[in-house]
Amino acid sequence: MESIKWERYPRLAGSGSAKAWMTIQINLGLARNTVEAYGRALEDHLTFCERHALVPESIGQADVASYVHDLSERPHPRRPPKTGEACPDVVLRLANATLQQRLTAIRLYYDYLTEEGTRVDNPVRRGRHIMSKRLGGSRGGILRRYYKLPWIPTDEQWRAILNAARSEPIRNRVMLAFAYDSALRREELCHLATGDIDPARRLLRIRAETTKNHQERVVPYSEPTGILFNGYLRHRREISQARGPLFLSESRRNRSLPVSIWTWSKVVAAIAARSDVPELSTHTFRHLCLTDLARTGWELHEIARFAGHRSFQSTLTYIHLSGRDLALKLESGMASIHKWRTQLLLEVLQ
Question: Please, is 193 exposed, middle or buried when counting C-beta atoms within 10 Å of its C-beta (0-12, 13-18, 19+)?
Fold first, then answer.
């Protein structure tokens, strides 16, 4: 990973200990998104300390609690209330997952200060996590953790999404098909290379360096997606005949360069706007695929292998979301739901 852009984090860069800790995270080879999330969290915490004349090397649990309260009361920076909403006076707050992420970063930072002898203890108390029978929670930490099920579209919304994607270039339609069909994360999708595809067996190799848990896996894709993919290969040869990154930019400035994760995010945002499904994100396709597999009766270990989950706890989310643990399997219709979606991909996107 290239060096962090320190100008984005002026207070962090101005603190010798904070900059040293961030440099360690970079040198350890953490994912770019993780490093940037840590940078934002620590920059925010140092800003709070500066505003309240606190010295990080000497703050206590009460000061950390004040910081948590400050985070909890902030309005969401990217989700202001919309004009005409049913409850315009409701202020959207930062999500529990965001708060947990911020606390994790500063907890690790104070661990570092403690290990280096700058502090005698860590003021960010660790909790003893306990899982309930369903969604679970935590007890004993500074902030209670909530486990929220991911959003997935209804069948009507899925049709609207695919209809909106119909006007996209073939590259984007193939990316959408792969994202759903093989439950790919954004980074995994954008970093696919020509050598990762086995068209004869309809298999994708997800290289370890592109995955979240650094574990390689091989996953299948459906025949309809294979037909779309063959059409894209013919189109790709018009841009570049060189092997390498699979999905290439077609813009004048970046022609034949690999598509970035930010480009894919913009594509999905545009589809979300045209389909009037604002909840749609790049991760939605993965959530939907894994939920569909759970609905069709796949076993826990099979879904975990397919998804590349390190822990079965992550996979259980989709069992909960599918409702399979709450009701008997439907003996008709449900067994073909995944096939139906993949066929719909072909009908709408080709």
Answer: middle
